[in-house]
Specification:
eight-stranded parallel β-barrel, globular, 12 helices, TIM Barrel, alpha+beta, 3 domains, Beta-galactosidase, Chain A, domain 5
Length: 695
């Protein structure tokens, strides 16, 4: 952009770059510090705030119905000021722009101390004398990708995403910009837009709110993660030589979102975490996780991880005082910190448990002495007691299903998804009701752990606001406020966020959690693949992974399950009462090994080896990871999948190590020669874990 004013601000080993055109339009990008020759002079302005309202003109080039990018309202926003300050949060850059409609917008960049990413959001204020109805507003728009060439950058830009389905979370996808038809046309006309996201109250359904753009020629990657717990969108847009990528709330076309601002009203968007680095793809993911690390509560800055026992895959929704007593006889004194009573503790003899959420009365046929007796038993066994709730929903057969005055509606009709209705979490009555049923219940019975599940979505949104999407946003934010209320009012509580496994694995929900359910793939062979994929998106100290043990399991299957659990927080379940003594002892050896290596799980960085699995349901060859800790130690996890004959695996190591400890069954002929680790697997679907120390 010739003759533009360029402002470059240092932020956490990067530079935030603002280009102010003569017209007053201002754009934003971020680059690694000292990352090579730049061609800012040929970049056209692509405004840092993408905003549109009812009645606004879309961009020329057939954009209507696809994107509001560079709408008339956006292009009318002009630079007003920039304020750079230091605060307790870190460096803060506030860039203010204003449009002819009397809308003033602040684009805020926060660079936390000791972090390799930044947090970006937008604050909109209506300074006019009339109402404005927003239909699109970005949290961030990174433009000018790539600034490292003076041409269109053909065959050098790749878009990375993570797809997600139930029990198949976190599948990495990478496609070239050309493959996505995002290269400019012959006339630089016609908007190119790749728009993706999630609509509803399960924000990780279809995609994770993540995107990265890689310039292969210079080895620079731009990455972002959207901390939006309701409907969200990401757009990769191209009109001329340079690509832009924006993220934030889903707009009107995509997510049915409108928000009316009266004169003097303000609206703040969700945060987006942003980074740029000269690194590999795993490195850019780790840089984004830095922002999640920065947001950890004081009590979450741990140096070791717990082992958790959850009885769900033991009883499948039929817990009882009697069964818990049997389990405690086996688990007592065996290195478990938490014992979680999962779904079904409230089951009605006639109504059952799967569709009876809402009343939350203890089933006295299951717990004849009350659930406090079970909590006391768990504590006497040296563990903290946990309990399952799906507090936002009302089951079809619950008496509360008739309380339509406090249930979410759309177009005046109660929203029914499968067999679930949904509380209106914005309602004071609902908040007080749940405070008694959940918070008082936790305190009265001495629970120190709550697993909060959520097993369906309300879809596009609900009544009670200017649009279904805004109703959804407000309701989900009220849910998150209730999570905070639990933490504030239950001493020493640990919160697990679950949503049919991994449907809420986005930063906004994850920052409220001590632990998050990685998936509902309870005892499937693809668990190590999903768990390893999620190390790119979820802090390992929060990613809780099932290791379900069955009485008929061979030792190699127990090794397979327990080793998979070492990709995060190990959660044991299954037939522990019926395991043969040697099998149970072998599993406990795995728990002890996990506790020993947990500091590496928390602080390490993973290198991954093995072929990409085209099918999670038909795994072939092997998967191996080396997680390097900060103290010269490393954790190696290897899973052998379907193969023929003896499988010999060789893994390069970053330095010279010796084997300090191992968890395996049989002899895999593990050796280290120089900086190469070699092992053999005679059988399929076997696994091992190694603790390495500096030689």
């Amino acid at each position: 952009m010739k003759n533009a004013k360029i402002i470059r601000e240092s932020v956490n080993g990067m530079e935030a770059v603002y280009m102010i055109a003569k017209s007053g339009q201002v754009s934003f990008t971020i680059i690694p510090a000292r990352a090579g020759k730049l061609f800012f002079d040929i970049i056209n302005p692509d405004p840092l705030v993408q905003i549109s309202c009812t009645g606004d003109a879309t961009s020329i080039g057939f954009a209507a119905g696809e994107t509001r990018h560079n709408s008339a309202m956006t292009m009318a926003m002009k630079y007003v000021s920039q304020d750079v300050r230091q605060s307790s949060k870190g460096k803060v850059i506030i860039t203010t722009v204003e449009g002819v409609q009397g809308i003033r917008v602040r684009h805020v960049v926060i660079a936390p101390h000791n972090c390799r990413g930044v947090r970006v959001y937008t604050d909109v204020c209506n300074q006019s004398d009339f109402d404005i109805t927003l239909e699109a507003i970005s949290s961030v728009n990174i433009s000018g990708i790539t600034p490292y060439t003076d041409d269109v950058g053909r065959d050098r830009l790749m878009l990375h995403r993570f797809r997600s389905r139930w029990s198949a979370e976190g599948r990495h996808e990478v496609r070239s910009i050309e493959d996505l038809l995002l290269e400019p046309s012959w006339a630089n006309f016609g908007v190119r837009c790749e728009k993706f996201g999630s609509v509803g109250s399960m924000p990780v359904r279809g995609y994770f709110p993540f995107a990265a753009v890689e310039d292969k020629e210079v080895g620079v990657i731009w990455g972002l993660s959207c901390a939006c717990s309701s409907s969200w969108q990401i757009e990769a847009v191209r009109i001329d030589k340079r690509l832009s990528i924006s993220a934030g709330l889903a707009d009107y076309e995509f997510g049915h979102w409108r928000k009316t601002l009266k004169s003097g009203d303000e609206f703040v968007t969700p945060e987006v975490y942003v980074t740029a680095g000269r690194c590999d793809f795993a490195g850019i993911c780790d840089r984004l996780l830095d922002v999640q690390r920065d947001k950890l509560l004081r009590e979450q800055r741990v140096t070791s991880l717990p082992a958790i026992f959850n009885e769900y895959c033991t009883t499948w929704g039929k817990p009882s005082e009697k069964v818990i007593g049997r389990l405690l006889n086996v688990i007592n004194g065996k290195d478990f910190e938490y014992f979680v009573i999962d779904a079904g503790w409230y089951a009605d003899f006639v109504k059952g448990w799967q569709d009876n959420m809402g009343e939350w009365d203890v089933a006295l046929d299951l717990f004849p002495d009350g659930i406090k007796k079970a909590v006391d038993m768990i504590e006497d066994a040296g563990m903290k007691a946990g309990i399952w709730f799906e507090l936002e929903v009302v089951g079809a057969v619950s008496d509360m299903a008739n309380d339509t005055a406090h249930l979410l509606t759309r177009d005046g009709k109660v929203i029914i998804s499968g067999t679930r209705r949904f509380w209106d979490m914005r309602s004071e009555w609902v908040t007080e009701y749940l405070s008694k049923k959940v918070i008082d219940f936790l305190n009265e019975n001495g629970f120190k752990y709550i697993k909060i599940d959520y097993n369906d979505t309300i879809g596009i949104g609900c009544d009670g606001a200017e649009s279904p999407g805004e109703g959804l946003r407000a309701c989900v934010n009220a849910t998150k406020d209730f999570y905070r209320r639990i933490r504030d009012n239950v001493p020493d509580i640990a919160i697990e966020v679950c949503s049919s496994g991994g449907h809420r694995l986005e930063p906004g929900f994850m920052e409220l959690a001590d632990y998050v359910s990685f998936s509902d793939a309870h005892e499937e062979k693809e668990i190590p693949v999903i768990a390893a994929d999620l190390q790119n998106l979820v802090l390992t100290q929060k990613s809780q992974i099932w290791a379900v043990l069955r009485k008929d399991d061979e030792l190699k299957r127990i090794a397979y399950s327990v080793c998979a659990g070492m990709y995060g927080v190990l959660c044991i379940s299954g037939d522990v009462c019926d395991l043969a003594a040697d099998k149970w002892q072998f599993a406990l050896n795995g728990v002890s090994f996990y506790k020993k290596v947990s500091p590496i799980i928390i602080t390490g960085r993973t290198e991954r080896f093995g072929h990409f699995q085209n099918s999670n349901r038909e795994l072939k060859d092997y998967q191996a990871t080396v997680r390097y800790g900060r103290d010269g130690k490393a954790l190696v996890i290897v899973h052998s999948f379907d193969h023929e004959g003896t499988q010999k695996i060789t893994i390069p190591l970053m330095g010279e190590f010796r084997i300090a400890d191992k968890f395996e069954t049989g002899d895999h002929k593990v050796t280290i020669a120089g900086s190469e680790l070699t092992m053999e697997f005679e059988e399929t679907f076997d696994a091992l874990a190694l603790l390495l120390d500096c030689d």
